[in-house]
């Protein structure tokens, strides 16, 4: 994840996103996040009085907004450019972390909630995945894909990338991501008639 050079609050959120992407939500404590972010523990509780769930929710939203911003910029050049940017973004995170970091949005999504209620972080993760899918689907549709096909391909792209990031971490290689990139690019090109 990109390191925030902004306020202490932003550094804590970026640090939480990085920690969750590396360790998962349940293994990420507020104390460890404060240390990782180089922020006083008291500041963490000041900015996030509702505790870990509030911080996790903000970390998911931070990751979602950051990724959506990259997608919007690259999708201006078309769905192939957007796809390549999405893949490159996650490839860089995996490689730069020596296969130790993945997506904090996925990490929050796969952990069992402590209660029967849907935690705010999990709801935020659902919103993030939906936004990434919408951005990709809108671009595919604008470049010639049928609406239903555009939506289905967008879902496939997000699911495939999230899954292959996990495979890369487990196998300590980018091969799954590279193989998936090649097939997704072919699928996108076929959908837009190129």
Q: Report the biggest beta sheet as strand number plus sense, adding barrel if it closes.
A: none
Low-confidence stretches: none
Assembly level: single chain
| DSSP summary, beta strand count | 0
What structural class should be given to the helix and strand makeup? mainly alpha
Helix content: over 70%
Q: Tell me the distance between the termini.
A: 33 Å
How many helices? The count is 9
What would you note in describing this structure?
With 194 residues, the protein is an all-alpha fold. The protein contains 9 helices and no strands. The radius of gyration is 17 Å and the shape is elongated. The chain starts with 7 loop residues before the first helix and ends with a helix. The model has no long low-confidence stretch (mean pLDDT 93).
Question: What keywords describe this structure?
Answer:
mainly alpha; 194 residues
In short, what is this structure?
By secondary structure, the protein is an all-alpha fold.
Describe how the helices and strands are arranged:
Elements: H1 8-23, H2 30-37, H3 41-47, H4 52-75, H5 79-96, H6 104-110, H7 120-142, H8 147-171, H9 175-191
